Amino acid sequence: MGQPPAGGAVIAFAAPAFLVAGLLAALVPVALHLIRRRPPSSAPLPTQRFLTEDARNAVRVSRPTDLLLLALRMLLLALAGAALARPAWLPAPEGTSEIVLLDRGAAMSGGAWARAVGEARRALLDAEGSARGELVVFDTAATHVPRRRVTPALFDSLAAARPSSDRVDYAAALRSIRGASRELRGADSVRVTMLTVPRWGGWSAGMAPLRRAAWPGALAMPELGAARPAPADPASADSASTDATAADSADDAPRRAMVVASGRGGQFAAPALEATGWRVARTPGVDALPTEGAGLYVVLARTAPAVAAELRRRAEGGATVVVARDAVTEEVRGMIPWTGFALDDRAPGGIFLDPELRIDGASNGVRGRPAEGARVIAAWDDGRPAASAISLGRGCVVFAGTDLEGGGLPFSASFPRLLDRLGRGCESSAAPSADADRPLDAGARAVLRGEGPAVVAASAVEGAGGGVQLGRWLMAAALAVALIETFVAYRRRTA
Amino acid sequence: MSASADFLPPRLLERLGGLEIVAKTVVRGFQAGIHRSPLRGAGEDFAKHRDYQQGDDLRYLDWKLYARTDRLYVREFEERSNLQAYLVVDASASMDYAGEGGVSKLRYATYAAAALAHLMMGAGDAVGLASFGAEPRLLAGPRSRRGHLHDLLLNLERLKAGGSGDVADVLDRVGSAMPRGGRVVLFSDLLEEDDGAALAAACGRLRARGDEVIVLRVLTPEESGEAAPGAGLYFDPEHPARVLPAAPRQDPGYVRRVGAYYASLADRLRERGVEYVPLSTATPVEEALVAWVNRRRGAP
Q: pLDDT band for position A479 (50/70/90)?
């Protein structure tokens, strides 16, 4: 089905041959009635000798005897043909239409909100004040504003209102694009603009694949100014990244981690943790813990019962204890968030920590399931839980269902992120540990902005510019006609 | 007879069942409709007097009794007849034709013949039965004994239409099987190949013998043209191979030709002293018989 022609609304057919076939088929019942000529049946008449021959009566032209049934049958065939032709009502073309995602979360306080509303007004209203696109207002949820309500008065009221105190959820905004695009029936192309002051608070796990699925092009994200000083050159992702990294560095003091292992254990885990910003120490053995405390203990080997008890105490005091599969002892088993623990030496496949982080190379796993109240923080390829976390006192205990330094796992580029994620096991999301008000760094902005053209052809967007599909309604009408025809034919036969 | 609405339509007669019931029903209606018995003839014996009623034949007034009593009485006679009669029913294929929603001509003729047999045997006449269709047949000789009526009705009931009969042949056979001075009543549609020449000749021969000959022509409204059928292909049941496309309803010549045929045939029959009675299957049997008898007796 091509683009609608310039001018008014039209009915377009994706497969017009079916329409022609249906109309021709509708003529068949008429043709059968009109074309068929056959001799009339002869009748006795004893006074036949007194008749004069009338050759016009030598053949009989059949006429439709039941016009209602004939009409129903023709209608049925025509409707079926029209339905198979996949008709669609296409409104008058509108050119490029806009979808504006307006953030009204807490981050929009100050002048950002007024500027965002102004941007939305400019994008959505033409000179006459008529809407030329769809407006979605979002914070933790997205609300699609019907086009008839997108008026200058709406923007006046939005400008007068204050943004909400809720955090935002960019995932909700991205998911709303598809619904909004379906309303753009006359658009030949679509541009999506997100008006927000990007904050980590709106970020959530799986943002990158969600972003790719939500919209095939790039989002326009005009700079609205933020509570924090904007980068000197907002267009430069590199400089923004540099600034954000600098800010992160200023906020994050190195955190202390301890790798509990024996022998050469911890030779991969320790540097991996250091790569993600931890200041790491290694215990000399598994029989005792240094008195100096740490925020994170990564237990890679079986420990003495006293050490296990000490780890529990430190977890209750606020530390996070990550226990690998090979470190589980009877004493530790009561602490880890796992039930039905049993070794399984088969290679379990890759580990998913979130939709964006998958690590291959695990050489073994365990059977069992997370304990009651524990949270699954990683899963195997087949969906079975791979790691779980549970709060213990003021701290956290994490169980990793594989040998963290076994197989090819330590050689994966994502190994440091795996350990970092396990070390934050009781945190609620995969977002960086910085607070939600921290601005998105350049990489996250790039993910949110996406790649591709800023203006996307409507034909590339499912549902957009496709008009109203009429095929299923015509098929339903054909079924209704078929039922009526059956009923009428039955009545005729039994009358 | 007060109103023709009292007569039963032939279609209704068919539902009565056996021919005996039909005959009695027809005769009852017939007797209620006639002004007096058509079969009262010579050779009657005095039975009794009764009061004169309007319509009685003045010839039977007893004037002597009137002179003595100053009241009008008519003399009644016991009917006694030596008349021998033959009912000849056409059972050729064309008689099977019924038209639209009516009874077949054969069925109609059967009703009329049964009624006449009932009447005539009631009057003491000896009645026989003959038919012609596939072949001419003398089905029952003239008898007047009790129970013969049942035989006649049974034979009438069994008649099946078929073939193209030879009416002259059966009339000649009837003539030879019956003493002179008898009565022959023919029920037929009179559709003869020779335009009725042989029929007229046979009737003439019977008349020459001194027989009374009555021809009751039975025809459907479709045949007579009163309700001619629409356009189509038509064949003569006696010659089914000859199919003719025609539109009788739109053909004014059809009625004219049918009428001319029967008028010509009627003229020839009347020339020979044959009583010709046209009947239509659309008319109730007893009504047709009453009209005929009344007409015969000169009543209005």
A: very high
Of the candidates B189, B222, B245, which has its C-beta nearest A58's C-beta?
B245
B153-196 confidence digits (pLDDT tens): 899 989 999 998 889 999 999 999 888 888 999 999 999 989 89
Q: What is the pTM of this model?
A: 0.43
- Helix, strand, coil shares of chain A, percent, nearest 5, are 40, 25, 40
Residues 6+ positions from B15 with CB-CB distance below 8 Å: none
Q: Using pLDDT thresholds of 50, 70 and 90, give the confidence band for residue B76.
A: confident
Report in angstroms the alpha-carbon separations of A102 from A118, A142, A201, A284, A441.
11, 9, 16, 55, 20
Cα–Cα–Cα angle for A65, A68, A74, nearest 5°? 100
Q: How do residues A194-242 score in pLDDT, each as one tens digit?
A: 999 988 888 876 788 888 888 989 999 998 864 444 333 433 334 333 3
B235 touches chain A (CB under 8 A): yes
CA separation for the pair A384, B43 (Å, rounded): 128
Which residues in chain B (164-193) have CB-CB distances under 8 A to chain A? 189, 191
Nearest to B277 by CA among B293, B264, B261: B293
Asked if B234 and A45 come within 8 Å (Cβ–Cβ), the reply is yes
B254 touches chain A (CB under 8 A): yes
- Residues 57-76 (A) with a CB less than 8 A from some CB of B: 57-58
Give the pLDDT confidence of A101-157 residue by residue, as tens digits. 999 888 887 788 989 999 999 999 988 888 888 999 988 778 888 888 899 999 999
Residue A283 falls in which region: left (phi positive, over 0), alpha (psi -120 to 50) or beta: beta
Stated as kind and residue range, the H or E segment containing A494 is helix A471-494
Cα A304 from Cα A291, distance rounded (Å)? 16
Q: Where do we find the tokens 């016991």? A: B78
Transcribe A350-388 into DSSP letters: -EEEETTEEE-----EEEEEEPTT-EEEEEETTS-EEEE
Per-residue b/e over A306-317, b at no fewer than 16 CB within 10 Å?
ebbebbbebbbe
**Among the listed residues A4, A223, A192, A197, the one whose alpha carbon sits nearest the alpha carbon of residue A93:** A4
CA distance A93 to A106: 38
Q: Which among B222, B243, B261 is the nearest to A42, CB-wise? A: B243
Radius of gyration of chain A measured on its C-alpha atoms: 36
The two tokens of residue A209 are 């694949």
What is the amino acid identity at position B28? R
Helix (H) or strand (E) holding B232: strand B232-236
pLDDT of residue A247: 40
ipTM value for the complex: 0.79
Between CA A123 and CA B239 the distance in angstroms is 94
Q: What is the pLDDT of residue A299?
A: 93
Question: Could you tell me the strand order of the sheet in which A87-90 lies?
Answer: A10-13, A87-90, A468-469
Give me A317's structure tokens.
Answer: 């005091």
pLDDT confidence bin for B46, thresholds 50/70/90: low
For the segment B211-267, what is each residue's pLDDT rounded down to a tens digit?
Answer: 999 999 999 999 999 998 888 889 999 988 888 888 888 888 999 999 999 999 999
Both tokens of residue A478? 């054909």
- CB–CB contact B248 A51 (8 Å): yes
Q: Tokens 């042989």 sit at which residue?
A: B198
| Farthest-apart Cα atoms in chain B, separation | 76
Q: For chains A and B, what is the number of CB pairs under 8 angstroms?
A: 84
